[in-house]
Amino acid sequence: MAVLEINKLSKSYPGVQALAAVDLTVERGECHALLGENGAGKSTLIKAVCGFHRPDSGAMFLDGERYSPLTPHDAMAAGIRVVYQEFNLLSFLSIAENVFFDRLPRKGPFVDYPKLYRDAEAVLERIGLRASPRTPVEFLGVAQMQMVEIAKALSGECKVLIFDEPTATLSPKDSGRLFEIIRQLKSEGIAIIYISHHLNEIYEIADRLTVLRNGEVIGVRDVADAGIPEIVKMMVGRSMEAEYPFSEKVGPKNRVIFEARNLRFKASAHEVSFALREGELLGISGLVGSKRTETLRAIFGADPKQGGDLFIHGERVEINTPRDAVRAGLSLLTEDRKSQGLILALPLSQNVTMAALDKASAHGFMNRREELRATGQYVDELSIKTPSTEQLCRNLSGGNQQKAVLAKWLYRDSRIILFDEPTRGIDVGAKYEIYLLLWDLVAKGKGVLIVSSDLNELMGVCHRILVFSNGKIAGEVERKDFSQERILGYAYREYIR
Amino acid sequence: MEARGNPIKRLFAIRGMGQVLTVTLGLIVLCIVFSFLNPLFLSGRNIANLSRQIVPILLVGISQSYVLITGNIDLSIGSVLGMSCMISATLMTKGVGPWLSVALTVVSCLVIGLINGVLVAKCKLPPFIATLGTMTIARGIAQIANNNYNTDAIGDAAQGFRDFFYYGRVLGIYSPVILAAALWLVFNFLLGRTRTGRHIYAVGSNIEASRLSGVNVNRTVIIAYLVSAFCAGVVGLMTTATSGMGAMDAGNMYEMYAVAASVIGGVSTLGGQGILLGTVIGAAIWSVLQNGLQFAGAPVAIRNIVIGSIVIVSVLLDIVIRSGRWSFRSKKIS
Asked: Quick check: helix, strand or coil at residue B105?
């Protein structure tokens, strides 16, 4: 029996048809995967189901009854819950208080703490989170916080549970545990809508899948019958030849463009030394916490260094602030584009020129013509979907925000570009575009450094990989020697001893 | 790819223009209402008067807008104004030439601005605390300037100074109006059309992203505080010119009036938002209310209550408009 039935739901924004007569049915105990590229309409659909905004037309039915939530609160009361990629937890409160935050049990005017902890324990038991309900959330790891979010969703009546990119911040092991929880929830009869860019996860837990593209339903399949190439084709609208572009023709030159010698910074006890050649794509692999990001930030002057020297084309450079770094010819594309990469409240055009205002101005005066020209050029080249160059970046979708960050640094045209997780949270099609772009950069003789948690991605695109382990460079692997075992072996080296 | 369409649409496409136009509408309504309450309100004489009344509020409004847009606040504006008034008047009564006095006064105000900027940007003090400190210090300097007395009259030697800052007229327009217009043009240009202006908006919107883009954040914040102190200092000089003497309590509460003018005009106290055209309208609304209510015979107490309410209502209105009608334009496309 269908728990949630969505019938011809449409929603448009000025210039964009976000949803066009979308149908979706989710059965009891079913895990239904919702797939599509960024901007395909997944978020809009979920937001309509959760009462964040009202569709223009169409109807929804919950357990056969008409369901039209006006507010997120209505949706929760009706039993529709979401576990978002970003958590909404109050870090200073305990697990129990977070789980029952909107309806703490009371005794007179006071919170009935004994009952609260008993109730919370029951919910935690159900999903297998072994932690005291009294623990403040701030002491939990990411995976445990996510379990608290799930517990929160299950603490009330829950008919439909929606997961939005739940594994984006989880390690493979934690993802495995999450899947177990999801399987158990399915067996309890809860309907699950699962959104993820990781197609292999779909095969682990999903029963059926719906693919959206440009706001339309492209198809519904039983997971067992659908192969990855077919799904990708449905999502992207064309088939993709290879997952990663790699060409033997474009190889690194012998000239070293950037070198770090004995670099030390606060976050790590070890020194880091390595060299990057012209036209080289150098990957940095390692486990979470192996100081990959910290290394990039220290190089860029975003965090203070404690020692060591940096060289560009053999000449020593002094980099104490990001400003010094930009002037010396470095770019850093941070992992967190919303809070560090873009100024969301400013228009696209002003973001594009932000790191290279000198190029779009003369004697301190802004040259709007040049600014618009440059922005227009990158909108075309990177196919950024935006109604105008003056659209605020806040209103761009995730993938387009990532492209806006790229445009900003492409306009800067630095010689050395540091990427931190350039493809996290973006879909297959956009990933491929970014790989092509990386190749474009190295073909121009730039040096590119990429930190990524996706080992396949690094092995797919890089010439060489440095493996970090607990703050040390534990190993260096050339492309011809790339293998998962070898790289992971280095990655764990400093932890095993 | 820039916004196309008819001129009205293009006008609205300018960032922050929506709020400014809404407030302008409010200003027009106010003027109509007051002219009904007292026909003399729109007399040429009152208009001329009003234009001069707007000037100090507009200038301190520019001060505060600059600082607010960087995401900070300047509580020292009123005291710097008072300090400027007392220092300039004291120097002139002691026989220092008026223009040398002006120069020394401006420099001393800029020093306070620099201290504000350094405390906030480099020493990372919360702007509220840092400028609360300099507010008190600057007022102390104003008091100590002439040994805790208001000054005597600055005398006939300063007539040129008084004409330049208050009494003179060019083509029938009072000199403070011309002065304010000139300063507004300069600072509006600085904010809207230069690299420094870009930095100010960027820093106020997202300081970390700005830093990582290579923006010199400290310098930007210091510049905003310097502009603030400069404008406040100019108003202090105008005050001296107006009354012909220095008053220790000049500019009392002006930092708050400045917040009001900025906020009514659409400058966000959270930083990164607002344009100086809005500050003009905000200052005009403030002055029209003061003047119009006075003409309508309302006592001071009533004026205060009305103006305070207007500040709250205008910001509320802005929130309602943003979350309501115009949010369609700014909803996420996904």
From this structure: helix
